[in-house]
Design brief:
The protein is of the alpha+beta class and 264 residues long. The protein has helices at 11-17, 19-27, 83-89, 93-101, 130-149, 172-175, 183-194; strands at residues 2-7, 31-35, 52-56, 66-70, 76-79, 105-109, 114-119, 154-159, 197-199, 213-214, 226-227, 230-235, 242-247, 259-263. It has one domain (2-263): Endonuclease/exonuclease/phosphatase (Deoxyribonuclease I, Chain A), CATH 3.60.10.10. It contains 7 helices and 14 strands. The strands form 3 sheets. The protein has a 6-stranded mixed sheet, with no helix packed on it. Strand 7 (114-119), helix 5 and strand 8 form a beta-alpha-beta unit. Helix 5 (130-149) runs parallel beside helix 7. The longest helix has 20 residues, at 130-149.
Length: 264
């Protein structure tokens, strides 16, 4: 099974450029999880024969949003955090609004595992959303994935809006303490690792230079001056089934590129 994740930064844009169609034709993913779709299904002209489509669009037009396209029909699909989960953990109203009104999470249940696509809130340039992110979102999303894991293994993927270590961005020193590389955000990612989830890329690739997002300024992508903020993580029980994990930096159309795993 080939599972891909891609922050398309506007699905209408990548469709208009033709890059999404080219990507699907060349890579033939079994499951593709999208973030930052910035559209509702009715706003998009897209034909994906053989795929089941699931969309979670934001209430605010042209903002955020996620989608899953899959060849195998899931047993169940849930948008956002389920009500019983938010009630169990007594989440703040703002957190529930972010997850559901901003279309940030979709969960698809398959026979052997769950697939979760997530578009993690950005801390913002002034770090005004960092408290929400660090104190509520990251712990909540981890708790949600662990709750799913009580039933079957979990694969979660998406734009996590954080570079985990200094190896995950080209210029760590000047970016320390800035959005995407604060101690709080990095600790939030480390909590996933400590809880037993596996960063699949690091099973196959070491060191730096492996980036998934590049600024539009100063030919950053051409010079590979980027950040790795898009990930696929899996439950420990799936580790031995991961045959490959890749970054597809040659796929254009967005400021992010797709990432993928091949699962036995």
């Amino acid at each position: 099974m080939k599972l891909y994740s891609w922050n398309v930064n506007g699905i209408r844009s990548v469709l208009r450029k033709g890059t999404f169609q080219q990507f699907m034709a060349e890579h033939q993913p079994d499951v593709v999880c999208l973030q930052e779709t910035k559209a509702e299904r009715g706003q998009v002209e897209i034909d994906l024969p053989g795929y089941h489509e699931y969309w979670h669009s934001a209430v605010r037009k042209g903002y955020s949003g996620t989608a899953i396209f899959t060849r195998v029909e899931p047993l169940a699909v849930v948008n956002g955090f389920p009500a019983e989960f938010t009630e169990r953990f007594n989440f703040a109203d703002e957190l529930a609004r972010d997850a559901n009104d901003e279309g940030r999470v979709i969960t698809a249940e398959f026979e052997e595992f769950f697939v979760v696509t997530v578009y993690t809130p950005n801390a913002k340039e002034d770090l005004s959303r960092l408290p929400l992110r660090a104190e509520h979102w990251d712990p909540a999303f981890l708790a949600y994935c662990k709750q799913l894991e009580e039933r079957k293994p979990v694969i979660f993927c998406g734009d996590l809006n954080v570079a985990h270590t200094e190896l995950d961005l080209a210029n760590p020193r000047p970016n320390r303490g800035k959005k995407g590389f604060t101690d709080e955000e990095r600790a939030g990612f480390q909590a996933f690792i400590d809880a037993g989830f596996v960063d699949t890329l690091r099973l196959f690739k070491e060191g730096n230079g492996h980036y998934t997002w590049w600024s539009h300024f100063a030919r950053s992508r051409e010079r590979n001056v980027g950040w790795r903020i898009d990930y696929v993580l899996v439950s420990e029980s799936l580790r031995e089934r991961v045959l490959a994990a890749e970054i597809h930096a040659d796929v254009m159309g967005s400021d992010h590129c797709p990432v993928s795993i091949t699962l036995r």
